[in-house]
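In the laboratory, one determines a bound structure by crystallizing the protein with its ligand and collecting diffraction data. In a computational setting the workflow is compressed into a single prediction: the sequence and the ligand go in, and a structural description comes out. We illustrate the idea with D-ribose.
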Amino acid sequence: MKLVIGNDHAAIEMKNEIKEYLEGKGIEVIDVGTNSPESFDYPISGYRVGKMVASSEVDGGIAICGTGVGISLACNKVEGIRACCCSEPYSAEMSKRHNNSNVICFGARVIGIETAKQIVDAWTGATFEGGRHQRRVDEIMEIEATQKLKVADEA
Ligand code: RB5
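The predicted complex, in structure-token form:
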């Protein structure tokens, strides 16, 4: 498995700990975030993570800022990205199983490192279930591609 990881200035320590944690499990991690304590705009890292995931260069992305919110918003502006901001492992796992999330986000100022590790474990260990969930994910992607949702407009 190969992942991309990105962060802003609020999440340098957590990014490095998560990167090391994943590498210890044999997962390759490409770091596109900042390592400087200077203020760093989270959309830059969110965009980089999103682009790498959307181009299928990697199997998924992890994006961390202070809350996980701003960077998830930025990731989600890249076409093809389903980034989910989670503060506990259950939602992270379900975001993969039901929503086929391809980026997981969390906040370094919100959760501790042990919860962050549980989140990445839950997310990397989960598989998209397809079936009825595929239809719903397709509907999300239809909204993205067309700014319309046929089933809703016709109802
Ligand atoms: C940076 O101060 C902070 O706004 C950022 O890390 C993040 O929390 C934004 O959503």
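DSSP finds seven helices and five strands in the chain. Keep in mind that any predicted model is a hypothesis to be tested, not a measurement.
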